Amino acid sequence: MSNLMASQLWDVFSGKSASGMEKVAALTEDFLRDRIRETSVLNRAIPPVVLTEAQIERNTTNDWPLKRVELEPDSKAFTHGFRGKGSAQFMEGRKYEVYFTKIETEHFKKTREELMTMRYPVMDVVNNNFVLDMQEQLDILFKTRLLASATAASNTGSCGSGAVKDKFKDAVITGVRKVLGKRRRAARLIMTESVWLNLAKLEPDKIGYENVGRIALNGVAAEKTFLGYEVITSINSSTAGSVWSDDEIYIIASPEFLGSNFILGDVQQEMKREGNMLEWWAWADQGMEIGNVASVAQITGISSLT
Hints:
Blueprint: H1 9-13, H2 19-39, H3 41-45, E1 49-51, E2 57-58, E3 65-70, E4 77-79, E5 89-91, E6 95-104, E7 108-111, H4 112-116, H5 122-152, E8 156-158, H6 168-180, E9 186-192, H7 193-196, H8 204-207, H9 209-218, E10 225-226, E11 229-234, E12 248-253, E13 259-274, E14 277-290, E15 296-300
Parallel strand pairs: 1-13, 8-15, 9-11
Antiparallel strand pairs: 2-3, 3-6, 4-5, 6-14, 7-14, 9-12, 10-11, 12-15, 13-14
């Protein structure tokens, strides 16, 4: 079963019982969950916590689930309302509310005849159709919250003047200082892989001959930190029509001082066969919020730096 090919899906699903679908689900569910956690910026910035039905609460105005989280003293949080939609509201009490929203992939639909021609593993189907789709949706929601938080905390800045003119290193320092200025400690940097390539432009007087030589030989992919801060990169850039801008860096605190990321019941899959058509998709009920808006900063104008 671990070597199942896409062309074999029809035969697996053609039995009279649901056992075939259950086998495929069992084969792919761990891979699907782990890959989303590895590739989503959100899930690397705030590792997800899986909640059970007993751990959630009900909204007072409707039956949609939420989770109330203790708010750090002297902090402001954002709540984005029912199903994660609507206007964001500040929360300044003892708790903030994390609403859940359904993240659903596009439906993978293939006829029996089309499946017969597919000469690649089922895991490729899952990765190309489900993982990338869910990862992008999660990061869209996450970026919206990061930008709203940095703006609300007056933690935004633009390169091109003053201390950050023409310097990638100084741009990062400026963002870190914005977080430190709110008595929060920065821990991670978020940027696209294109922005991270700026590291290769830095000269020896900025990062030392040894580092320049290593980066020249091995590239920037192997580099995981900058100025001691963990770097989270994404290939999903706005230049490619996706989420993260090639012109900005986000500076964030460590997860315990940043916010919450919950999954209700983990990632789910649905499979059905009707006539000669196979349909397969995945979804998750996920809730995320920034629990401390001062723990986020944004620096723009990065693309022109050296």
